[in-house]
Amino acid sequence: MEVTIGNDSELISQAQGIRYQVFTCEQHIPAALDLDGLDEASFHALVMENGEPIATARLTLHEDGSSTMARVAVSEIYREMGVASKVVKSMMQYAQELGVTSIEIHAHSYLRNYYERFGFEFIKEVEIVGEHQLVEMRYQTVHS
């Protein structure tokens, strides 16, 4: 299982395919909400297994040095196998290498404890997307 991070058009297309399956088909989130125009300006993590894309996440950098990790998605048959954790850890490491000051996420509220294990801190409940309550969380990066 290899993780590739980049922002070329082929990688973005594969990431969008996973997101469509997970967010639009499974979670009934309108595709227009997923395709927010930030993909080309962001970095994408893509996990491949046997030549097939199976998981993704997106990192968007901001001018103030902060970043936002979003669109974490894993194909259904690969869930509960540690794939999401591999994507999140890879993206956090990449963000640190880029020198970001913090990583913000808006995650499903039921994933709050999951992200706290990576060091994210709960900030507040935010919007509801589709039928899903989201929470805002932040990870402060450490620079030596």
Give a description of the structure.
- This protein is of the alpha+beta class and 144 residues long.
- It has a domain at 2-100: 3-Layer(aba) Sandwich (Aminopeptidase).
- 30% of the residues lie in helices and 39% in strands.
- It is built from four helices and seven strands, in the order E-H-H-E-E-E-H-E-H-E-E.
- The protein has helices at 9-26, 31-34, 83-98, 112-116, and strands spanning 2-6, 43-49, 52-61, 66-74, 102-108, 121-129, 132-140.
- Strands 1-2-3-4-5-7-6 form a seven-stranded mixed beta sheet, with helices on both faces.
- A hairpin with a 2-residue loop joins strand 2 and strand 3 (52-61).
- The longest helix has 18 residues, at 9-26.
- The N and C termini lie far apart (30 Å).
- It is an enzyme of class 2 (transferase).
- It comes from Kushneria phyllosphaerae.
- Pfam families: Acetyltransf_1.
- Its EC number is 2.3.1.-.
- This is Putative N-acetyltransferase YjcF.
Structural class estimated from helices and strands: alpha+beta
Tell me about the biggest sheet?
Answer: 7 strands, mixed
Radius of gyration: 14 Å
- According to DSSP, the number of beta strands is 7
Question: Would you identify the regions where 5 or more consecutive residues have pLDDT less than 50?
Answer: none
